[in-house]
Design goal:
Strand order of the largest sheet: 1-4-5-3-2
Structural class: alpha/beta
Number of strands: 5
């Protein structure tokens, strides 16, 4: 696999949270503890989500794709959280609306063009209701990792280390 980091330790299942910020803090702190992002990543991702919401009302299961600037990233990665209960996220492009999110794909990219490529690939997953429902049903992080590796073709995201 290329140098986009995605292993079972950053795929979180049954995450309990009542607010969007709790979800982002839980996921972000996990990445900080694994030395994949700077400590500044957590407040930066919350601030960016406040300004530019990333909730998407996708068919079957709504998702969010929080991300922030490259200077907070040590090793590019994608973290996934399957939430125990849906949590409200602002709708991308319309921060006056909320969407009940069940899956969060947190992106930490070290190059802007990598982030765009990854977002385009993720959109293909988001358009497949059955794939999203399949991900929510998984009981092992390894199964979600395998789905992502197959669907996202991580080989395309080679790039520089910091």
């Amino acid at each position: 696999m290329s140098n986009i980091y995605c292993d079972e330790s950053i795929i979180l299942l049954d995450v309990e949270a009542e607010t969007r910020d709790e979800v982002l803090t839980t996921m972000g702190n996990n990445l900080v503890n694994k030395s994949l992002v700077q400590p500044s990543f957590v407040p930066a991702i919350i601030e960016r989500e406040n300004e530019f919401p990333t909730g998407l009302p996708t068919a079957g299961v709504s998702v969010a794709i929080p991300h922030t600037d490259v200077e907070h990233v040590i090793q590019k990665n994608i973290s996934v959280a399957i939430l125990k209960s849906e949590v409200g996220f602002g709708v991308m492009g319309d921060d006056s609306e909320q969407v009940p999110v069940k899956i969060v794909f947190m992106l930490a990219m070290d190059e802007a063009h990598s982030q765009l490529s990854l977002l385009q690939k993720l959109m293909q997953i988001f358009q497949d209701e059955n794939e999203l429902l399949n991900m929510v049903k998984q009981t092992e992080p390894k199964a979600i990792k395998e789905i992502l590796e197959e669907k996202l073709n991580f080989q395309e995201f080679k790039g520089g280390h910091k």
